[in-house]
Amino acid sequence: MSHTDPEILALRALGETAGTARDAEHAASCARCRAELARLTAVVRLARDTEPEAALQVPPPQVWDRIAAATGVSATLNGLAPGRPALNGSAAPAEPSAVLGTPVPPASPVTPEHSRASWLGRRRGAWPRGRLAGAIAGLAAGLIIGIGGAVGVAQLNQGPRPAAAQVVARIELSPLPQFPQWQGSTGTAVMRATASQQEIVITLRAPARSGFYEVWLLARDGVSMISLGDLSADHTGTFTVPPGVDLRDYSRIDISLQPFDGSTQHSKASVVRGSLPAAATARA
Amino acid sequence: MDRSSDEDVAAALCGGQPDALALVYERFGPLVYSIALRSLGIRSDAEDVTQQVFVSAWRSRDRFDRGRGTLGGWLVTITRNKVADALRDRQRDSRVLQQVTGGASVAAPEAPADRVVDRIVLTDELARLPEAQRLVMVLSFYSDLTHEQIARVLGLPLGTVKSHIRRGLQRLRSRLEADGVAY
Predict the structure, then answer these.
(1) CB A129 within 8 A of CB A137
(2) Domain hosting residue A250, numbered range
């Protein structure tokens, strides 16, 4: 019998039960196919073992300056050149009343169905579309997220919270390697827990651009996301984590630049991003 | 970007093109910096190591032999050495501090964990897959969807999804074999 179809081996490496019983028999008895399967399985294991936090980080701009100085190389970077700031005066969003720091009001406790609404690109009202179309929209948004955890419904977090208000974590937000135009932008997110809720205080240092900056919580599944609200004109904002949202699932903070196009979905223009440390997302 | 552009970057470096270092840095800066950052944990230290790696690569570019390995693998090797040096410096500093203060002993320095390097190499290659293929691979790895479900959700023919998966896995594997450490 010929060797197992490479596509079947690839699917089996992913844990699917692909191929016929004869394929399985052959793959088990043939040294070559067995070795091939082992190599592919090792790739899959490494990939699944790779946390979302392992996403590549772009070195800050001064590193290249120092390299250029040390080597005498004068070339400028093409892709990593900082973007040209927008004209002065266009910094303030055009519709301030609509975008100035309006955190999503704490809604009723999140049910699993409620969480799934994030597949539909929820913000102020879900998209009136079928589940499949919504899933595709969510997946398209997931493209910008890269690697995520396993798809799953956000778990309820109804455990008791710390009694006193306290700073739980301070997270640096940095640009993603695939968006060199945001190179040089940074942000911080300070997480505070009060007796009844969790707050995230955002400060963004990014050029003024047309549009507005919006703050998101991204789930580990790389698909689901929750809009926390928009940054004010000075690029700051304080947001309440909606009750019931489990930050162990929604463990990344993302800031997007949103055009004034009326869409409630993530624009895919991720400016900066950061991960909540595990300690900050642990159940109190 | 695909594998051939890595080879273009390597060719530019070997050919001594004046903008070659910028090309190499743009392509591999995040890889080197991420390995350094994950291994050292402190941004300023990772920045120093990143600088050292590219300065050293530039000065010793004559020693890079394209016939013997990839540029990525060569840079990963330099990075691991520089990280080991940084950890040794750190240990020496803390030993001095320890002598001064009579404090507790410190752990011996280690090269970056091989698996850390491999994960970052994999992340880098995954990010370089064409968009549709990357999405298929991400769903294959991190969702519970089968390839049939992925095909349905993405509206792609089953054969396309299967081919993306096979080629995607092979490409990740080749990259890991070339530039990875423990894989």
Answers:
(1) yes
(2) 96-281
